[in-house]
Design a protein that fits this description.
With 181 residues, this protein is an alpha/beta fold. It contains five helices and nine strands. It has helices at 16-22, 27-41, 62-70, 86-94, 166-180; strands at residues 3-6, 47-50, 75-79, 100-102, 105-109, 112-116, 132-136, 151-153, 164-165. The strands form two sheets. It has a five-stranded mixed sheet. The longest helix has 15 residues, at 27-41. It is globular and about 50 Å long. It starts with a strand and ends with a helix. The relative contact order is 0.19.
């Protein structure tokens, strides 16, 4: 079992500012490829933290959005994003799409603490005994490290529309830390 993180699937968000940076011409191509890339790495027993903004559109898109999310492998945990409205959260719960839905998650992995949120959050309690890093989405940027804080971006744009394993995130952070000193 592996742990993966991603954010901002934006299923059915048919806007050029979403599609073009991700390299897609149509929303159908986008939706299909997000699922394909996700499922190429994640199996049914893996844990996936989705850090917000799963889908877009009102009630007329509900059935299609549920169908798309159900196609995504893994045991899914959602950290609520700005497009995850009360109506969408209700839909997610009624369709039983997620193991849990919260505003944030916190886990410890290899002596690091990770706070997982949709929005970038400043966190840090020093280098020892346990550094804290924020894993987030929302920025729609191709960079994985932002600002001066301990922030790591798992937005689709930052990882060529693939989820990222916690192992890879940890390795990236360790390499980034080393390059800073």
């Amino acid at each position: 079992m592996a742990i993966f993180l991603c954010s901002d699937w934006h299923f059915n968000h048919d806007r050029d500012f979403i599609l073009a940076p991700r390299g897609f011409e149509t929303i159908e191509q986008h939706n299909e490829e997000i699922i394909k890339r996700h499922n190429s790495l994640v199996n049914s027993e893996d844990i996936v933290y989705i850090l917000g903004d799963c889908c877009f559109g009102g009630p007329e898109y509900a059935e299609r959005n549920i169908e798309l999310i159900r196609q995504m492998n893994g045991k899914k945990y959602l950290a609520v994003g700005n497009h995850d409205t009360d109506a969408k959260i209700k839909m997610y719960k009624e369709a039983e799409l997620f193991e849990a839905i919260q505003f944030a998650y916190r886990i410890r992995f290899k002596k690091y603490e990770y706070l997982m949120t949709h929005y970038p959050t400043l966190v840090w309690n020093g280098e020892d005994p346990k550094p804290v890093w924020n894993i987030h989405g929302h920025d729609h940027d191709k960079s994985i490290f932002h600002g001066t804080g301990h922030n790591y971006d798992v937005c689709m744009e930052a990882h060529d529309c693939y989820p990222v394993s916690l192992e890879q995130i940890h390795a990236d952070i360790k390499a980034h830390k080393t390059s800073q000193y």
